[in-house]
Design goal:
By secondary structure, the protein is of the alpha+beta class. The chain has one domain. A three-stranded antiparallel β-sheet has the order 1-3-2, sandwiched between helices. Strand 2 and strand 3 form a beta hairpin. It starts with 10 loop residues before the first strand and ends with a helix.
Length: 98
């Protein structure tokens, strides 16, 4: 995976495949297990391949969601810099929109 990512500073992906579930959607254990597996699906590959990743909040309503930035192993500081720039630009765009 390290070789596949060598030409990119980072990957930008949705952190989860959907917004956060309501508590009512997790009422029984099977529903919780199913939702938990779904919500962990996207970030799991970064752990599996020993990559670094960070999630930043997306400025959307009404439910929280995030963008995950994934970098090569050991590029944590670079990823922090990229995520700071992305987050600043995302939220600045929200503040300037009518």
């Amino acid at each position: 995976m390290d070789q596949r990512l060598r030409n990119w500073d980072c990957l930008i992906l949705p952190t989860t495949p959907r917004t956060a579930p309501l508590m009512s959607e997790l009422a029984d254990q099977q529903a919780f297990r199913t939702m938990n597996a779904l919500m962990l699906r996207n970030p799991s590959f970064a752990n599996f391949f020993d990559l670094c990743a960070i999630t930043i909040p997306m400025p959307i309503e009404p439910m929280p969601a995030g963008i995950m930035l994934v970098g090569r192993h050991g590029t944590d500081q670079t990823l922090f810099s990229i995520s700071r720039a992305v987050e600043t630009n995302l939220w600045e765009g929200v503040r300037t929109c009518p």
